[in-house]
Amino acid sequence: MSAALRYLSTRGRAPAATLGEAIAAGLAPDGGLYVPERLPTLAPADFAPHGTLADTAATLLAPFFAGDPLAAELPAICAEALDFPVPLRALPYLDAQVLELFHGPTAAFKDVGARFLAASLRRLPRADARTLTILVATSGDTGAAVGAAFHRQPGVRVVILYPDGLVSPRQAHQLGCFGDNVQALRVAGRFDDCQRMVKAALNDAGLQHALPLSSANSISLGRLLPQMSYYAHAALGWWREHRAPLDFIVPTGNLGNALACLWVRAMGLPVGEVRLACNANATLPEFFAGRDYAPREAVATLANAMDVGAPSNFERLRWSFGDDDAVRHALQAESVDDATIRRTIAAHARTHGEAFCPHTATAVHVLDRLREQGDARPWTVVATAHPAKFEQVVEPLVGHPLAVPSALAAMLQRSATAAPLAASDEALKHWLRRSAQP
Ligand SMILES: *Cc1c(COP(=O)(O)O)cnc(C)c1O
Prior knowledge:
alpha/beta; Rossmann fold; five-stranded parallel sheet; 43% helix; 14% strand; globular; binds pyridoxal-5'-phosphate
């Protein structure tokens, strides 16, 4: 067994942390994101040939956990968090595959990270015996995944902030349906307001003294690391059959999902080319086209979980590849506007009876373009959410009602409530103080 990996901040001004510390903290104290001091390497032969997704995850992540008190728990964490299928389904009409990440409890890939984070945090010792309040700002999918992952878990409660009116009706219902230890707040503002309010609360020492707070946003290593598992699992399966690496097209917002894919490749596993599909928020496509990195405010699109103007994992991407030219060499990105998203969903439904969610449709469009250009490689499109989660967009385009996955249907059966909240830092702090009173 190799020595324990240390975890460093991308900004280089925080002390090195153990994995458990990095997972518990979320953000590094200097405002940077935690990264392993180096990426371990593995070979296909290191993996059991007929293992489950959870088996692949346990082998893949073992070097990241080595030496940490959580290491002994890793197989149990993987088995608990990754207990739903992630099929690589053939799309013969496109000579391609779709990697379906949406068969978890809330029908989006965020379930993988949220469930792994919850299973890890549950096993980390806490000095403070009081209930931990986990704050999560969401543009739609993260909040539900985190709510589901921590629902009825003792010792924690989850407070979800989402922008009122800017998530799909089914997303809103999911966010408000948990009850018990999960509370939703609908904020009269945008996602950026929700994120700022959460940060302000976390940085308020007095408030932290009154009630212990933590966050579960996508910057946590406890969410990023498990996302590597499905890329490794799919690529290893493909490798055993074809002796060739697997190429991926990844719908991208904050870059957490795509970065996980790139890290699997950097570990020496058979991932080939990686393309990013973005919506009209073109910060990354412009950077990859050669311009300077220019973060900005997000604009609202049909693929709302990708409405990101300043992708938080960009710091990790730069860290991973050293300099901007090396980053540009490592992958490519394309921006897909709403009209094209609609056209893509309608066209694939009409010609082949396939229904894609608006996020997945950005990646499907990138594949369509590659085929037009004569690219014949067996690409894998990553499907990040079930289309029934966005039925108001997708059903009119495909022309029929969509079957609802059973977990989502069960959530829609329950009643849902969310408390209104003004989009100010003080409003959230006041709400939290009041909620902490016995
Ligand atoms: C979060 C999300 C994305 C974007 O993922 P990132 O890791 O932020 O790049 C894409 N599609 C769906 C459905 C999502 O929920």
